[in-house]
Amino acid sequence: MNMLDNLLREKSYSANIQGEWFTVQWKPDIATSEVLNIGGVIKDRAGEISLRMLDNFERVKCLYSEDALFSAELACKVAREYILSVKRFDLVIGESIHIKSNGFFQGLNAETVINRLFDTVVPLARVQNKRAVNKFSPVDRDGLYTGLKERLKDKLELEYSLHCPVNPFINIDKGGVNHSIFLPFKKTDGIATLASAVYSDPNRVKCNLYDAQRDIELARYELKTSKSAIFFLTNASGLSETKQAQIDEVVDTFAWYMKSKKVFIGAHSSPEDLAGEIAEWCKSKVA
Fold first, then answer.
1. Residue 129 — pLDDT band, cuts 50, 70, 90?
2. Which among 113, 115, 82, 85 is positioned nearest to 99, based on CA atoms?
3. Residues contacting 270, CB < 8 A, separation 6+
4. Are strands 227-233 and 264-268 parallel, antiparallel or unpaired?
């Protein structure tokens, strides 16, 4: 029995991760030097990076103005692509974005750690629900991607690095314009992107899905791949019937259109089920 306990403790310890964590800070107005935390980042001992950036900008609007929404969203996009693509943690990105090192971290896994840190250091992301009943929690793509990576490591095992590139972004030059597209999953004959449809605003869901469509269409044209897929998480509960029906219509229309373009669609309300379908797609061969 003691031997079993020792093995279990050893297994539990080996599952832990350690590394350095950072906050991404943004100055809404350089003249005032006021700083807001808009993201959290962890880098483990193996060099793998996980992050979550601010995805709900309503509090920015309340603190400043509607015009500040664009600046905040752009700052998050620039920081996200810089960190994941360049993998550097320079103290300053431009004049308004700063990355602050906060030292050592350790935890069970990347998903647990980054979610806890993000909830702690980015108060702007906290949504105040006016009704306690049917509380709805949106899921941003950053958090979804981090959790899926953890699940895919178990499902793909030794093949994980073949299907999940370290840098999920690819830069494509089209007509003299540089496009950074998000392609977190791949296989020999195909590429795939990821989106989240877990939002209460149908327009936000539509924007997220059509961003994924843009990435796939650009990648198919430029990379000449024979297979392409869009995976996304759908809502399980928490919305009114009317709101859910509006979002379902957006999702169904999008899925129908992309399937007509021979793009594989994988949609699930469970991250575990979504990871399972991504793993199956990665392992599947050309028919």
1. low
2. 82
3. 236
4. parallel
CB neighbours of 54 closer than 8 A, spacing ≥ 6? 38, 39, 60, 72, 76, 122, 124, 125
The pair of three-digit structure tokens given for residue 224, joined into one six-digit string: 């000449």
Sheet holding 185-187, edge to edge: 185-187, 190-196, 227-233, 264-268
Closest CA to 230 of 243, 208, 212: 212
- Reported as half-sphere exposure (CB side, CA atoms, 13 A), residue 177 has a value of 4
Highest-confidence segment of 59-63, 199-203, 227-231 = 227-231
Task: Please give the helix or strand (H or E) that residue 18 lies within, else none.
Answer: strand 17-26
| Contact predicate 185/284, CB 8 Å | no
Which pairs count as long-range contacts for 205-209, CB under 8 Å and 24+ apart, including other chains?
Answer: 205/247, 205/250, 205/251, 206/250, 206/254, 208/141, 208/232, 209/250, 209/251, 209/254
Angstrom distances, CA of residue 251 to CA of 1, 247, 284: 52, 6, 25
The DSSP secondary structure of 145-208, one letter per residue, reads HHHHHHHHHHHHGGGHHHHS-SS-EEEEEETTEEEEEE--EEETTEEEEEEE---S-HHHHHHH
Report the C-alpha gap between 106 and 79 in whole angstroms.
Answer: 23
φ/ψ of 122, rounded to 5, equals -120, 75
User: Can you give the residue ranges of every domain in the chain?
Assistant: 16-128, 131-287
CATH class of segment(s) 131-287: alpha beta
CA distance 101 to 20: 7
Our measurement of the distance from residue 15's CA atom to the centroid of its chain's CA atoms, rounded to an integer in Å, reads: 22
Specify the residue for token string 């509607």. Answer: 66
Residue 162's closest CA among 279, 55, 75?
279
Mean pLDDT throughout 67-95? 81
pTM: 0.82
